[in-house]
Amino acid sequence: MCIPRGNGRLRMxxxxxxxxxxxxxxRQLSRDRLTFGMVVMIPLIQLLLFGFAINTNIRNIEVGxxxxxxxxxxxxxxxxxxxxxxxxxxxxxxxxxxxxAAITAGRVRAVLVLPRDLEQRAANPASRLPLGxxxxxxxxNIVSSALLGLRNMPLDFKAQGSARLPAPTFEVALYFxxxxxxxxxxxxxxxxxxxxxxxxxxxxxxxxxxxERGNLELLITTPLRSFELMLGKIVPYILIGLVQMxxxxxxxxxxxxxxxxxxxxxxxxxxxxxxxxxxxxGLIISTIAKAQLQAMQMTVFVLLPSxxxxxxxxxxxxxxxxxxxxxxxxxxxxxxxxxxxVVLRDASLGDVPEDTLFLIGFTLIGLLIATLKxxxxxx
Amino acid sequence: xxxxxxxxxxxDIAIDARGLTRRFGSYTAVDRLDLRIPKGTIYxxxxxxxxxxxxxxxxxxxxxxxxxxSVSVLGMELPRHAEKLRTRIGYMTQKFSxxxxxxxxxxxxxxxxxxxxxxxxxxxxxxxxxxxxxxxxKRKVLADALSGGQKQRLALAAATIHKPELLFxxxxxxxxxxxxxxxxWEKLFDLSDGGTTILVSTHYMDEAERCHYLAIxxxxxxxxxxxxxxxxxxxxANVVEISGPQLRQAKQELLQTPQVxxxxxxxxxxxxxxxxxxxxxxxxxxxxCAFPLAQHQMATVRPSLEDVFxxxxxxxx
Lengths: 379, 317
Known about the structure:
Number of strands of chain B: 14
Strand order of the largest sheet of chain B: 6-7-8-3-9-10
Strand order of the largest sheet of chain A: 2-1-3-4
Distance between the termini of chain A: 32 Å
Number of helices of chain B: 11
Structural class of chain A: alpha/beta
Radius of gyration of chain B: 23 Å
Oligomer: heterodimer
Strand content of chain A: 5-15%
């Protein structure tokens, strides 16, 4: 290998130019109050919003009751249903017409109808007649599947001395999230979404802004090289990403009691891999976009599938094959898998080699594309 | 027709370009440009918008690669040595391109670090520049809050922070008032006295007249180059100023005559460029023009650079 003379000095000046860019970037950021505020507010607000608002575990659906039997058996069933906490009886009706009107008007999501011959049906399970009927407004899928879950609800009539229904076939043991709380799953996934959003947006607009304002025209006439400009611009955002990670995981742990089972080094390592991949994507966008608005549009273009397909909101397993392919191409999908494993199951990066390798490969190939596309000359 | 000292040894030449051509698609922005710019001079590119001034400067700084031709700047072949050349040249962009959200001092410090000035040297140099360019009391002011003239001086300070041997200025004073323009040129003459070669593009005649040498560009082609004085005396036309009634009609008639290159109204006068081969233009105009000029006052005057510009770029307006 041939090392030209004066290489050491060259490298020193290269480092000093990268430092100059980084220093300038921090100065500008500290003057830009809004962006500076967003660094902290985005994870804070999003975490609280998502943590409290998104709950895939449905409770207290408002329903009505049409009790035609009006017997002790019907009161027993209503109590048993109420005890599941899935529904909350808010209205009672005297006729099916009244019940249907209430659903149509949207006052309740469903009505439980208990027929006049309830006692006979309960006493004779061999007839296989259902005890009652749920009339459900099925427009919201999640609500209707919660109510469908009540269809086979075990009812123990022993207390009443009536016939016994068969015991459940399986016992279900829930690991890692026995209370089935949504935030445990949401918070690590949110880390992926927030980092996708801020990392890609900040880097892409930071470079496009200099293009727009003409700063780049000045910079390209100086001894500054394109990779020095890129590295110098990236460094501040790596630090910002780590600050956001700390905010999200600390708040998630304190407010939503999300267990942090993984080793801090593994968590930081996984996050850094994802930050690197996202920043690279931001750089590629910045080489394509001519204006900040375009950079923003392209960020949203990446952000939406990252929210919807990464497994952050909906399980990857439930997606059709095509959507899974798209999901596999997104860094966020791999990071969601990794970070849930590391944070919740104490996995290490070595336990998820495919995802680790994907993020490394994505970053390297992305950097290559960005550097090739970002031509220093104006040709 | 060039009076430039082409016999000079190459060591005295800052820019040597031969047959420089650059196309964008089917459009030729710079067409076979030949330049020989001696060191220590102020050399002007005069031309209307779109005449290839900026493209030429970009070719000469190595920002653009020429399609044809060769160029050597400060003895270095471009674009091969473009990176090495960067520390020896300064470039001031047409649009203010420093950082508006950094202060005067921060901008200069940033540029100093990019050019690799050591900390202590950078501080001393920045102090020197702040006082030279009367920005000392603006050191803590954000660049966005500076006036047009101050921004211009800050940009010049930044472009010269590393004491370049060759300075490129792309329409440097298009955004400032005449007084600031004069001050700015004083600074340029100071730099020139200090040995800096300056290449400046402009479309202002008064600015062009200050240059030691001038190239007139039109649609990417160099129409003429010489000292402003030589350009004016070598012009192929005499200038006649006519004053009197009905100048608009007079102009229309005059332009029908093939010996009249141009007739332009300036206030109450009509400035007419007549072929030099016409020996006595005033008598000739009175006798030959279809429009009666008997009552009009006429006088031959010294040509201006604008006349040279009109002649070089085709005239007939």
